[in-house]
Amino acid sequence: MERRAQGDQRVALLRTHPGIGPLTSLALVHTLEPVSRFSSSRKITAYAGMEPCERSSAERERWGGISKAGSPLLRFLLIEAAHAAIKQDAELRRFYYRLVERRGSQKALVAVARKLLIRAYILLRDRIDYAQFQRRAVAVRSARVLHRP
After folding, report:
1. What are the distances in angstroms from CA 64 to CA 22, 72, 143?
2. pLDDT tens digit string along 54-98?
3. b/e per residue 21-55 (b: at least 16 CB within 10 A)
4. Half-sphere exposure of 54 (CA within 13 A, CB side)
5. Backbone dihedral angles phi then psi of residue 105, each to the nearest 5 degrees
6. Cβ(123)–Cβ(133) under 8 Å?
């Protein structure tokens, strides 16, 4: 598996993200490529089965659990990667513990895995590594602070 992962630039880009190892990156690349077929991150989360189900009627809006429509193996690997990412990425750790207080550890872990999937999509779509992703995030946050009313 390591030999298979070494020759692929897309796998190398994904492995720069904390928590994503060779197996998860190979699964992401082979399940989601070509990422150009997805117009947004919501489409990719729906494809992977990590989009919440809506059970609404009339004016009452109710959101359920994830749809589980996509690959069960990919969801399993993303959950396992989320465990590792929480330990290594300070931003994801803060996000996880903030959600644990409100929703519990299992739902918080699925939310981190969903966020990891969206980040992987951005890395693959833009062909950037994790360091470049972080620099972009800082620039966007700074712009929001400057333009806040």
Report:
1. 32, 18, 34
2. 777 888 887 778 888 888 999 999 999 999 999 999 999 999 999
3. bbebbbbbbeebeebeebeebeebbbbbebbeeee
4. 7
5. -70, -35
6. yes
- The domain spans of the chain are 2-146
Q: What is the pLDDT of residues 121-138, one digit of tens each?
A: 999 999 999 999 998 887
How many angstroms separate the CA atoms of 96 and 107, rounded? 9
What is the Cβ-side half-sphere exposure of residue 42, based on CA atoms within 13 angstroms? Answer: 2
**Among 105, 104, 100, 48, CA closest to 78:** 48
Indicate the DSSP class of residue 18: T
Residue 57 sits at φ, ψ, to 5 deg, of -145, 130
Query: Model's pTM, two decimal places?
Result: 0.86
